[in-house]
Amino acid sequence: MRAIRGSQIALFLLLLALILVLALLTTALLDSAPLGDFRALVLVFGAVLLVYLYAILIYRTLLYVAPLKEGIVAEHTPEETIANLNILFYLLLFNSLIRTHFIPVPLLRLLYLALGAKLGSNTYCAGVMLDPPLTRIGSNSIVGHDAVIFSHVIEGDKLELRAVHIGNNVTIGATAVIMAGVRIGDRSIISAGAVVTKDSLIGADEVWGGIPAKRLRSLKA
Questions:
Q1: Which of 76, 101, 145, 152 is catalytic?
Q2: pLDDT tens-place string over residues 162-219
Q3: Which of 8, 44, 114, 178 is deepest in the core (most CB within 10 A)?
Q4: Percent of the chain scored above 70 by pLDDT?
Q5: In sequence order, what are the beta bridge partners of 72?
Q6: Is 165 an annotated catalytic residue?
Q7: What is the rounded distance in angstroms from the CA atom of residue 165 to the CA atom of residue 188?
Q8: Ramachandran bin of 37, using left for φ above 0, alpha for ψ from -120 to 50, beta for the remaining angles
Q9: Which residues of the chain form beta strands (DSSP E)?
Q10: How far apart are CA 107 and CA 124, in angstroms?
Q11: How many CB atoms lie within 10 A of CB 140?
C-alpha cells in the first residue's frame, strides 16, 4: 500500500480546519436564537451537523475543481493528491456516517447523492459505497444490506481508479462485494455474499453468484 505523503495530510488538515471554523462560526450565529430549555443540546447537535454539511460542500467543491480520473494513479502527481484527499475525507469524516446503520436507507440515498454518486430514481443502497463519485447506478435498483461497492484498486504500491456501472432494475444481494471496473447490465441479480471481481462484465438478465462470482443462469425465457 502506497503511503499518503505528509504534504497531502497537511492539505487535508487545512481543509478540515476550514470546515471546523465555518461550523463554529455558524453555530455562534445560532447561539443568539431562542432555543429554549434544550439550548445546549440543540447547539451541540447543530455544530456536528454543520461540520458534516460543510465537509460535504468543501469535498464536492474540491472534486468539482479537480475531479477523480479513472486509470492508474502515478506517484507524486496532482492526481495522486486528489485521490489521497478523497481517501482521507472518507476515512476521517464520511466513514462514520456511511458505515453506521443509524441513518435510514432513504436518507442514506441523499447522502450518497451529496457525495457525488449517480443514482437513478427509486434506487437505494443499504450497503456501502466506498467511492461515491465513481459509482453509477440506474433506476429501480437495490444494493442489499452490508453489500460493498468500491471503485479503487490497491495492489502493492499500485493505485488505480475504475468506475462501477450498474444498470436499471438490478438487485445486489446482501453482503455482496462489487469491485472496481465492474459493469452490470439491466435486470441482473447478484446473489447474496457474491464477490464480483474487478472489471467483470455482467450482461443484462443474468444471475451471478459465488466467490469469485460466476454466471449461474439467464433470466430470459
A1: 152
A2: 999 999 999 999 999 999 999 999 999 999 999 999 999 999 999 999 999 999 999 8
A3: 178
A4: 94
A5: 160
A6: no
A7: 12
A8: alpha
A9: 71-72, 118-119, 124-125, 128-129, 135-137, 142-143, 148-149, 152-155, 158-161, 164-166, 171-172, 177-178, 183-184, 189-190, 195-196, 201-202, 206-209, 214-218
A10: 9
A11: 17
Supply 47's cell numbers.
Answer: 455544530
**Owner of C-alpha cell 467483470:** 200
- Per the CB < 8 A criterion, the answer to whether 27 and 47 are in contact is yes
**In the chain, what's the furthest Cα-to-Cα distance?**
66
Cell numbers standing for residue 86: 478523497
Say yes or no to pLDDT of 221 above 70.
Answer: no
Q: What is the CA radius of gyration of the chain?
A: 19
Indicate the pLDDT class of residue 117, thresholds 50, 70 and 90. Answer: very high
